[in-house]
Structures are given as structure tokens and as C-alpha cells.
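Hey, quick one: can you model this chain's 3D structure?
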Amino acid sequence: MVAPADARLASLRDTSNTRVDATLAALFDTRPATEPRLEAAMRHGLLVGGKRLRPLLVYLAGRALGAHDDDLDAPAAAIELIHAYSLIHDDLPAMDDDDLRRGQPTVHKAFDEATAILAGDALQALAFEVLAYTGHPRLGSLVVTLASASGRDGMVAGQALDLAAVGGHPDVEALEHPCGWAG
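Sure thing. Here's the predicted structure for all 183 residues.
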């Protein structure tokens, strides 16, 4: 028997996934493809499933602060776009060189390395485009937070640290390296 708390969490996750998947699909379905191979690679890297935990956290945090789900769709989609971009790039031969992601060939295996790089780049840019169209009163703060968390002071810095540690044995101080910027 499923515990009530587990059932509630599963219901929240299902609702979140339905909302964010619809928002993400609409990004492709409501505008013409500019280059079919790039479009297919972007879809492959983004729409093939996944746990969608990051959007769930956006919805849960937003609801806790009194936001409506309609106002959270764009930030939830933006965070998932960044996540998909990071996975596409992380799977590349120059990084982790993975062949499978979510039981499917990685983007560079399904297409090619150059197309995978471009697909990841396009998804990253699309994340900021999605936020920019929200007209949110705190748009600047949303963009700065996403850029900082995903860029040189956040996720990308973490990936660089991960690559620098390959073959080594980082000590605790190296693992505690601050990636954030307090500017």
C-alpha cells in the first residue's frame, strides 16, 4: 500500500510533469522549425522524458510563496531547458562520453557531436528567451539567478572542477570550492 505522503508527492510530480511537458512541447509546436536536424536534436535531448525534479521544485517553492502555477510555467520550463542543455553537453565525448541517457542514445550518438553542441547551446538560449517573454515584475532577478546558477559561477564551474579532478583525488578543500559569486 502506498503511504498517503507518497501518493501526494506522486500526484504533485505528475501534475508538475504534465504542466512543464506541455510548456516545453509548445515551445516547438507553436513555431516553425528553422533547421530540421537541429530541431530534432533539441527535441531528443529535451522531450524524451526524465524525472523533471527541477520543475517540481520550482512549482513547490512558488506555491509555498503564493504564486499561481500559470506564473510558474515559464521558470519551470527554463530550469528544465538548462538541465537538458547541461546533460547534452555532459554526455559529449570531451566530457563524460556517455552513449545512453534515459535509455535512449545520447544526442551526440543519435545525431553527431556538432549537432549535439548546437542543440545544447540552443536549449540554453531558449531558457533565457522563455524567461524574457514572461514579463515577470522580477524578470531581471530571474535572469541573473538563472545565469549565475548555470554559468561560470555555478553549474559550468562545477563541470570544470569535475573535469579538473579526473584521474586525481581531490581533497575536501577542493570539493568545497565556492562556485558562487557574491557580486
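One thing worth noting: The chain has nine helices and two strands.
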